[in-house]
Amino acid sequence: MSIAVPDPQIAAHLEPGALSAGRRQRWRELGRELLRQKLFLVGAVILLWWIVAAIFGYQIAPQNPYAQNLTAINLAPSGAHLFGTDNLGRDMLSRVIVGSREILIIAPLATLIGTVLGAALGLAMGYLRGLFDDVLSRFVEAFLALPLVVTGLIAIFAFGRSNTTLIIVIGIVFAPLIARTVRAAVISERELEYIAAARLRGERALYVMAVEILPNVLAPITVEFTVRLGYAIFAVATLSFLGFGVQPPSPDWGLEIATNYGQVTAGYWWEVLFDALAIASLVVAVNLISDGLEAVLER
Amino acid sequence: MVAFFLKRLALALVTLWILSVLVFLAGQVFPGDPARAILGPLAAPQAVAALQRQLGLDRPLLDQYWRWISHLVQGNPGLSYQYQAPIGPILTSALYRSLKLGLLAFVIVVPLGIAGGVVAALNVGRPIDRVISVLGLSMTVVPEFVSGIILILVLGIGLHLLPISASPPAGAGFFTTLKYLIMPAIPLVFVLFGYIARMARAGTIEALSSDYTRTAVLKGLARGLVVRRHVLRNSLLPTITVIATQTGYLIGGLVVVETLFRYPGIGSLVANAATNKDFPMLEAGVLTIGAVYMVATLLADLLFSVLDPRIRVAGAEQG
Asked: ipTM value of the model?
């Protein structure tokens, strides 16, 4: 190997925080590695389908999901209505397709807010340590003393039921959880030599956290994001089922199950089964994606 | 050992106190007047004012909080708005019912999860390992009401194997009660299985690759004996902590499962209180849940330190 040609790995470390050829090549390799995992692909395909359904739902749906037809109520699945109709004669297939929209808007937004807040919090707690870290950790513990569903319940109870409240509440509740993981990653990063080098150069704390540490903890942050996305979907569906999530008359899956599960005893199983399967497929898909990412990024 | 326990207890109490403040504030943020809510929109203003004075709603916030928390600590959580009855007995019987359900789920999932994890670890890389791991983690993310609904459809209505209401008739024996509680317990088992199996698997893999295992094998001990005597004891340690943290998920799951199966436990109590704007019930219920979680974590810490003498010694040296 000729000495004149710089090793891309070394070049990457010589430029503080800048993306170099070495880094870009690493991302490409990771991408290829990811696509080789079969389960990741399964999850990605399912998620892609639901994203398409969320965006183009009204065009894809065979009928108007809100159109009531009181002469065709509670019909079992048939040629005309592949998923049957509900107790107002609305086509279930169309409702299931369109029902993907709100959960796929609310959950990612909430996760994004939680990740940004949590990453910022985790960076600060992990890098600054000291009293700041100790006091904040106590508050984080208090937050985590309650399950997400209960915390969400109280917060939405206090601040009113709306999609915005839902997004903010879930985001804020996720932040401490994400902060904990980021904090752990930051604590191990800050012992490395390039951080000491940056401090010796005289860089301020904010610079070190944002420019030096952040790019190097992006891997755990990304994995956390996808894992939390799964839980966000779980939380939105559960809160909607309890009546504290998406509000009527949306055909949201959780809400549909809550509205229709009384009908199950009358034998109208199709009014809940397909919504249940939709939720299950979405959460499992996101979970497979995050598993694949974790396997590849944390090698 | 005692110092360690006292320190953890103090921390738990502080956390519980912070929780009580947060819960109280949440009740304050809620718009509207509780007195008006109880008496209805047609009541005379004088009646509403009188009830406000009676409930102490016209006092400063700190005063209200102090009254509430001091009564609570003495064992009197006050009156429920929707039932107009003391909260205490309602809460305790609901808690008891939830504990029955939660315990059933625990008793099923802990051995199952550990067995699953150990089997997966003993067969690392082979199909059974992948199946257990992927299945376990996939089941963790499916919401309890989703798996619950599917169970109701298949086992309850389709096959008529189990009753779909979770409340056994009064005076039912042990086995009848079990039959009624098993279906609500299964969604909880599904959600908890994945994590416990994963921790057990990780712990077992680590124990299998350790020096003492290698020594045991080199000594000529049979494989089964090695696993039972040396590996299991060490792999189960992290699993115990996980079990404690799963209590949080269990309680969250109880809220959903009890609502779905209409089981009058503390989960559905809290959910109903929130729906019906019953502040005192909601606050008392939520604090109880927080306290239960703290107790579970404390017990797990204690268990962990008892089983691993290294932690006890470290704690004693610090404290």
From this structure: 0.81
